[in-house]
């Protein structure tokens, strides 16, 4: 599903990165661990096509997203990649249902109210369909951000520190919800985090080294 090779990136000469090669088959999960500042979010943004690598290839399915530009890239991402951001990105003037409709619209997907209800139901948010983002608790917002990420049934779900602000109970609940969603659609799930609690939940993990060098999945 995802193959990265020799991916490097630089913000400037003080912040240069070489990332491990990844090979994540369809339907499998991967945890990417690393200390603060080693480039976890940067790597996730490269995989999502939000940043362009300096060198290397990032293949999602048959497509090297490092080669896509503009609208092509946006449409590809909208249809194939779901991102659970550190902080949820909602349109505050729209209800949760309308936010989800917007995500489908932006990916050129037909509206499907059954799909929206099914996803919200799976996340325990069906009664929040008509709520505005500000009316949701922090935990509900976290779950709603998972809904935004999975509504288009992407084959690749990327999550940036989805549990950092959560207590143990909610941490494992969010992981369970993410895993359940990926099983439903046979998607691959990649979580980047410094949250060591997640290690026991994922058989495969890779740690980004403090001193950047290329390594591979252990
Ligand atoms: N836009 C930017 N311009 C310049 N440097 C940046 C930029 N974004 C991030 N950096 C630097 O790149 C390094 C890696 O940042 P990144 O956010 O990828 O780390 P991280 O491992 O996700 O950290 P954390 O766990 O604290 O979120 C940091 O030193 C950061 O200051």
Summarize the entry for a quick read.
Keywords: ATP-binding, Nucleotide-binding. This protein is an alpha/beta fold. It has six helices and ten strands.
Structure, explained:
It holds the Pfam family ABC_tran. One of its GO terms (molecular function) is ATP binding. This is ABC transporter ATP-binding protein. Residues 2-214 form the ABC transporter domain. The protein is α/β, with parallel strands linked by helices. It has a single domain (2-207), classed as Rossmann fold (3-Layer(aba) Sandwich). Helix content is 33%, strand content 22%. The protein has helices at 40-47, 70-80, 96-106, 113-122, 138-150, 168-185; strands spanning 2-12, 15-18, 22-24, 29-33, 55-60, 63-64, 81-84, 156-160, 188-193, 205-207. The strands form two sheets. Strands 1, 2, 3, 5 and 6 form a five-stranded antiparallel sheet that branches. Helix 5 (138-150) runs parallel beside helix 6. The longest helix is centred in the C-terminal third of the chain and has 18 residues, at 168-185. The protein is globular, with a radius of gyration of 17 Å. It starts with a strand and ends in an 11-residue tail after the last strand. Bound molecules: adenosine-5'-triphosphate. The site of adenosine-5'-triphosphate has 12 residues, from strand 1 and helix 1.
């Amino acid at each position: 599903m995802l193959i990265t090779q020799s991916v490097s990136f630089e913000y400037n000469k003080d912040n240069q990165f070489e990332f491990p090669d990844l090979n994540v088959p369809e339907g499998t999960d991967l945890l990417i661990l690393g200390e603060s500042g080693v480039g976890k979010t940067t790597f996730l943004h490269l995989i999502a096509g939000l940043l362009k690598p300096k060198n290397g290839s990032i293949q999602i399915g048959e497509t090297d997203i490092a080669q896509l530009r503009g609208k092509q890239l946006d449409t590809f991402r909208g249809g194939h990649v779901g991102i659970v951001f550190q902080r949820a990105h909602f349109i505050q003037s729209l209800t949760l249902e309308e936010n989800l409709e917007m995500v489908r619209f932006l990916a050129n997907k037909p509206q499907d109210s059954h799909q929206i209800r099914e996803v919200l139901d799976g996340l325990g948010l069906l009664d929040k369909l008509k709520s505005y983002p500000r009316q949701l608790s922090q935990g509900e917002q976290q779950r709603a951000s998972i809904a935004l990420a999975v509504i288009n049934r992407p084959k690749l779900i990327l999550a940036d520190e989805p549990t950092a602000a959560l207590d143990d109970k909610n941490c494992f609940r969010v992981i369970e919800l993410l895993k359940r969603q990926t099983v439903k659609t046979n998607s691959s799930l990649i979580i980047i985090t410094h949250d060591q609690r997640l290690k026991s939940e994922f058989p495969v993990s890779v740690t980004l080294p403090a001193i950047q060098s290329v390594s591979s999945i252990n």
